[in-house]
UniProtKB/TrEMBL annotation:
Family label: Belongs to the LysR transcriptional regulatory family.
Name of the protein described by the UniProt record: LysR family transcriptional regulator
Source organism of this protein record: Hoeflea alexandrii
Keywords: DNA-binding, Transcription, Transcription regulation
Keyword Translocase (UniProt): no
InterPro entries the record matches: LysR-type_TF_proteobact-type (IPR058163), LysR_HTH_N (IPR000847), LysR_subst-bd (IPR005119), WH-like_DNA-bd_sf (IPR036388), WH_DNA-bd_sf (IPR036390)
Domain HTH lysR-type: 7-64
Source taxonomy: Bacteria, Pseudomonadati, Pseudomonadota, Alphaproteobacteria, Hyphomicrobiales
A Pfam family that the UniProt record links to this protein: LysR_substrate
CDD domains: PBP2_GcdR_TrpI_HvrB_AmpR_like (cd08432)
Length: 307
């Protein structure tokens, strides 16, 4: 027997849309069909399986138990069919373009991309450091890694993490200041990136009255990698995320002089158009990076006891 007779694909497609929307009219609009045609396909499907799928009530329909049992598998089936179509048109060698906030690109992604490329050797990665918000309607990016308070409407957003931060500086600078034993002692030193909100957040969490940081204008950096380079050169103290500078802390090139760190609402997000969620290369990268960042946070984030 032909597959089309055993599995009425068109009727199942109509069923999935009706069950998802909870009504015939919105399903008909999505599928470009009349409500009469939608009703006819549902009738055919009900006759085919011998069960009622929807209870017709005034101004709405309700899924029956049979429909509720069917819906997850039918939805997943159409996702797999969509994946098959995408795989058919994807070249054997393809490029994944990633636009990333600068510090994440240079201090995490570039260091870890090798494991993704080993798992997906047919996918070349083009990584761009960007500070602006990616416009997927104009930019050629497949994925954006964005720093901020999300999620953002109109896009599919996955939180990679909200990373802890603390003041960090070179050991030589700390020694030159006669030792840094209390949080307020940091104010003796040049503050790098003093305009960043994270400074006031950290001082408040450490019990220090909000300091006036307006005089610290020499190192007016925004990007964290620039702040870190200045701190490594002994030019001041910077507020840095542990996950980016775990190696510098472990080697002693940087020190975090207090057993105190904090975090805020700002996170690192993986962002892409919702319409591309089933694109094979985007799915593969999404699954890889969510797992990889989670594992790295377990390794680099300070313990709760040090908060």
């Amino acid at each position: 027997m032909k597959l089309s007779r055993r599995v009425p694909l068109n009727a199942l497609r109509v069923f999935e849309a009706v069950a998802r929307h909870g009504g015939f009219s919105r399903a008909a609009e999505e599928l470009g069909m009349t409500q009469t045609a939608v009703s006819y396909q549902i009738k055919l499907l009900e006759e085919h399986i011998g069960e009622q799928l929807f209870l017709r009530q005034p101004r709405r329909i309700v899924n029956t138990e049979t429909a509720e049992r069917m819906l997850p598998s039918v939805s997943k089936g159409f996702e797999h069919l969509g994946d098959a179509m995408l795989a058919a048109v994807q070249p054997s060698s393809q490029t994944l373009e990633i636009h990333s906030s600068p510090t994440f690109a240079s201090h995490w992604l570039a260091r870890n991309l090798g494991s993704f490329q080993l798992a997906w050797p047919g996918t070349a990665v083009r990584l761009l450091r960007v500070s602006k918000i990616t416009d997927f309607n104009r930019d050629p990016a497949d994925i954006s890694i964005r720093w901020g308070v999300g999620p953002w409407p109109e896009q599919e957003c996955h939180l990679l993490g909200r990373f802890s931060f603390a003041p960090m500086l070179s050991p030589a600078l700390a020694a030159s200041a006669g030792g840094i034993t209390e949080p307020r002692h940091l104010l003796r030193l040049p503050i790098i990136g003093a305009q960043q909100d994270s400074w006031q957040t950290w001082f408040a969490s450490a019990g220090v009255e909000p300091p006036d940081l307006s005089v610290h204008k020499r190192h007016n950096y925004i990007e964290q990698d620039l702040c870190a380079n200045a701190a490594l050169a002994g030019q001041g103290v910077a507020m840095l995320n542990h996950i980016y500078f775990a190696e510098e802390l472990a080697s002693g090139r940087l020190i975090a002089p207090f057993n105190h760190h904090c975090s805020d609402d700002i996170g690192i997000w993986l962002v892409h158009p919702a319409s591309r969620r089933n694109n094979p290369k985007i799915k593969a990268f999404r699954e890889w990076i969510l797992a990889a960042v989670s594992a790295d946070m377990q390794r680099t984030e300070p313990s709760a006891a040090g908060s």
